[in-house]
Amino acid sequence: MIYVGIDWADDHHDVAITDDSAKTLSQFQISHDSSGFATLHGQLAKFKQSPDQILIALETSRGLLIHELLRSDYSVYAVNPGLSIVTKTVMCSRKPNPTLWMP
Q: Which of 17, 67, 73, 98 satisfies CB 3.0 to 4.6 Å to 26 for a cystine?
């Protein structure tokens, strides 16, 4: 199984790909256009997995990227960034540690 996390932004998206052991396999940015979507598809194709073996989580539930991923038969999960474990850890800490979410 391959796991993909996409950090949503208006003009680009940060992508991280891991496997079952949580080992980071790849990290890169894509633009929010057809070129960026092609880059994402190309990176995912390197792992030679069928779409049902690739789970994708990102911080939105709509838009062109979601449409493209669903069209390609990936399992897509929208997550609320305000509820992530990293966000809770940083927000509840007396001394926030930004390195918790940085590679």
A: 17
Burial of 14 (C-beta count, 10 Å sphere; 0-12/13-18/19+): middle
Q: Specify the number of domains making up the chain.
A: 1
Is the entire prediction scored with pTM above 0.85?
A: no
Provide the residue range defining the domain that includes 18: 2-100
CA–CA dist 35, 42 (Å, integer): 11
Q: How far is residue 72's CA from residue 20's CA, in Å, rounded to a whole number?
A: 22
DSSP string, 16-40: EEE-TT--EEEEEEEESSHHHHHHH
C-alpha span between 23 and 9 (Å, rounded): 24
Q: Where are the alpha helices (DSSP H) in the chain?
A: 34-45, 64-71, 85-92
Whether residue 56 contacts residue 6, with contact meaning beta carbons closer than 8 Å, is answered with yes
